[in-house]
Amino acid sequence: MHHPVFSAGLHGDLSSLRPIYSELRGHASMLLSGHDHDMQRLRPVNGITPLVDGAGGQELYPVNSGDPRLAFFDDTDQAHEDPQHPQEAQANAFTRNMLVPPGFWEQYGPDLIAAQENDAIIHAAGKLGVGVEILAGRVRWESGDYSRFSDLVGYQQVRSQFPEFN
User: Fold this and answer.
1) Could you read off the pLDDT of 18-53 as tens digits, one per residue?
2) Residues 31, 1: contact at Cβ < 8 Å?
3) Do 89 and 145 share a domain, yes or no?
4) What range defines the domain where residue 72 resides?
5) Which of 45, 92, 99, 150 could be a cystine partner for 155, CB 3.0 to 4.6 Å?
6) CA pair distance 7, 56, nearest whole angstrom
């Protein structure tokens, strides 16, 4: 989901999303979100680990490092200046490889980046066993072209699935 339910970042928690979070109990072990431009993993809340990864595209926002819920956060904003900085490289690798294993990406990544049709992404996502939005998002990030495969990542479509929050 785009907005985090729980966040130690600039925007903080979004309590209006807690009913959705409650519905996920017992059905999810991790909830990936963005919006706050930082990277943070909080300690599990009711069995679900909140992960905020909104570090793409703009400068990082500050994180409340004193928040006791934080298990990990990336407080460096050196990606634009030195993407090879060890801490920055580690955070980027963790994010890239969390859902798309390196071996899979090495084998299929170049062809997926070159792909122009949704079918290539859909087929590869099925082979890997992840949602097409995960693989389409990785292709967008790797290629640096966030206009590609917008329909596969559900751009501006998620909110429509929750009419009670519109």
Assistant:
1) 888 888 888 888 888 888 878 888 899 888 888 888
2) yes
3) no
4) 1-98
5) 150
6) 17
